[in-house]
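JOB MANIFEST
job_type = single_chain_structure
chain_count = 1
residues = 323
[input]
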Amino acid sequence: MQRHLISAADLTRDDAVLILDTAEEMARVADRPIKKLPTLRGRTIVNLFFEDSTRTRISFEAAEKRLSADVINFTAKGSSVSKGESLKDTAQTLEAMGVDAVVIRHGASGAPYRLANSGWIDAAVINAGDGTHQHPTQALLDAFTVRRRLLGRDAGLGQDLSGKRITIVGDVLHSRVARSNVDLLHTLGAEVTLVAPPTLVPVGVDTWPCTVSYDLDSALPKSDAVMMLRVQRERMNAAFFPTEREYSRRYGLDGDRMARLPEHAIVMHPGPMVRGMEITAEVADSDRCTAVEQVANGVSIRMAVLYLLLGGNEPAQTRTEEK
């Protein structure tokens, strides 16, 4: 493992499998009466969020507290950032406080990389989402969910996703989740297909390790997992498709389309879901949809990442003592 986690593309196959296997150990903590490990006692972690977030911020905070770290939550609103303070000055303030790790979400692509390589702060940096660039822990929790569902909780240990076919559908252009998943799933041996309107496919996608299709119906029968993406209107400055109804008709997942999936296939969504547009309530509430499961798995993955970056060389022991 490197010192920072900035991009899913930075992870080797062995790095990724190590994180997934460690997350399985961390998931056992959730089954205990007291959901705590002393691993990061005495370490200070700051959650530095310049963009709004619910799932990611709370997930990181839960992971940090379950590892017994001291947690500082920083949001741009109500801080000196709203008065014009730069990222450099904020980082140097945190350095003066002696933090051990920074979990950063920022609207500018490349901000976590800049923080990690600037010399402003001597701490591990974890990218919790930067612009339309990367969201590596989301890709890890998605891969963790796929491996658990398709291979099994214990059977999947040490395994990658070789031969699995993952279809990612929707607003790929603005999605850091899509970019991160393409990188990581390819590293883990999966075959990735992107399905989107032509206007929502990024320039240069032909250099990505995946295939592109504009026909959702033809991709579904060949998919082991289908990942629906939210249409990110807040990042759009133009009309990328005629109407919501037209988008839903061609790229939305409803009960009829879900029936075309193989019996073992799962439906994923990083959240928040826009029900009725990219996914219907029937699909979102079905047993095949892993959206809530992905949230729970996110805590385990983020515990694993924090442990491996900060926890030292001791193995992650989460088993209860024999009676």
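[summary]
The first helix runs from residue 13 to 27.
The chain has two domains: 8-134+295-310, 136-292.
exit_status = 0
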